[in-house]
Amino acid sequence: MSAQPFNPFKMAQAQFDHIADLLDLDKATREFLQYPIREHQFTIPVRMDDGNVQIFRGFRVVHNDVRGPGKGGIRFHPLETIDTIRALAMWMTWKCAVVDIPLGGSYGGVTCDPHNLSMREQEQICRGWVRQLAKDLGPLMDVPAPDIMTSAQHMLWMLDEFETIRGEKYPGFITGKPIGMGGSQGRKESTGFGLIFTVREALKELGIRPEDTAASVQGFGNVGQHAVKLFQQIGGKVISISCWDQKNQASYCYRKESGINFDELFSITDIFGGINKDKAAELGYEVLPGEAWLEQDVDILIPAAVENQITLDNVRKISNKVKIIAEGANGPTTPEADKIIVERNMFMIPDLLANAGGVTCSYFEQVQSNMNYYWERDEILGKLDVKMTNAFMSVLELAKKKKLNMRDAIYYIAVIRVAQACKDRGWV
Length: 428
Ligand code: NAD
Description:
Number of strands: 12
Strand order of the largest sheet: 9-8-7-6-10-11-12
Order of helices and strands: HHEEEHEHEHHEHEEHHEEEHEHHHH
Bound molecules: nicotinamide-adenine-dinucleotide
């Protein structure tokens, strides 16, 4: 059993320290990159539909913006803490650096549960969040995006509030906007698709055809859905998907050995990525405990839900048949579990690379919004494929050359790029 409660920021710092040791980073650079450069913690009072005022906690953390404006999601989650946001901001710094886009690392959030909030209440939270941060956000400073339980609609309310405060139009203020309102074609599917581009490359490296593989996925929200869709399109079979069930406050795994039917499952999924348990059973899916997704005899595991899902407590339950683990979620694997995965010789595609398609396409959206000129979907997905494939190949090449595992190779590339930029600017 893990002795300490899970702290994502400590995990992110430990991952960084490991590479800082390997690179023999000087003391000042190490200390500088261990902590965020800016943090905001604030309250958002909202008059609820019943007339009472409820106070929500909001956050925005900029870990590092040496390579360009901060970039990172906003998450609405009942268990949101400043340490999760710090970790996510730090991971964004490395993620932008490894796919080599000129952006820094930020993240934000609000401790709330949209399942229990009306649309009007959610709008007030979005507007309140922007009001608190209006001076510290903007296309040239820090650019938010959607994440867990935030959607294009939330981004649009935030954009509207920002433009109202500034009195001018700033389409590049935020990404993940609706198409036709400054959003980019392809953004919605970019994280899941980007993930499958990296799975495709890993399969090539292992000499396996996608048609000969089966996958099990945790999470059926934005990332999970699009990953499943493209994986099936390239010939793979998905046999199980686990997600959170709000009614029962538990997660369940839905399995069909012959392969899940995407459209069928999607039609019984709510906007939060929750699958209707009773309807799934009616459609012939086996309903298993949530953790069963990890124990399947499949070739590929895709954690695409939340952090801290593959731990010392369950890592040994992963089948010997598994060849690839592709992290759609941020921080799904603890460092202790990661060690065992490396020892078991499974091909890990770590989060910083596997889910970087989202921020890459957000970058494309920002470029288009700043020009106020929009590209076609094929052009965007083509550019995304090139970026993801190039990043995958550079990481793999370095991993082989320096005999590093994939995660260490990613950190190696990213930390060198960021540390060098800090030196070049004379910051450390
Ligand atoms: P989402 O809110 O759209 O979907 C989350 C999914 O996870 C839902 O299906 C939910 O039911 C499931 N889930 C939540 N808790 C669970 C649990 N305990 N057990 C099983 N399933 C659970 O979120 P998303 O945007 O798809 O993000 C998923 C992950 O991917 C997060 O870690 C996020 O930070 C990361 N990510 C998202 C993007 C993006 O563009 N949306 C980009 C990069 C990384």
